[in-house]
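The protein record filed here:
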Amino acid sequence: MEILMSIVVGVLFMVGTYMILTKSLLRVVLGLILMSHGAHLLLLTMAGLQRGTPPLLSLGSEAYADPLPQALILTAIVISFGVTSFLLVLAYRTYKEHKTDDLDQLRGSADE
């Protein structure tokens, strides 16, 4: 299962890097979203995909699932949602102000 998750993480990082290198501002934002999802899956995979009971003290089980990676991923998801919403608003304001989302046109000329 870890091999499949590693392949999915690699594909997400590959597609995200490709989209960041394009000329459209919206594709850059979508590429960052894909890379953040790849980072979430990477954290989950590196912690080890294990089966076990929830970490409750009242149960007499011997195998427990580690809650720390899940808490880290939940925090990372909330942070990436905030960054994504900020980037979408920034891209929208840039489009409304300059009437384009092409990064070559937004760069300007050499005399500016």
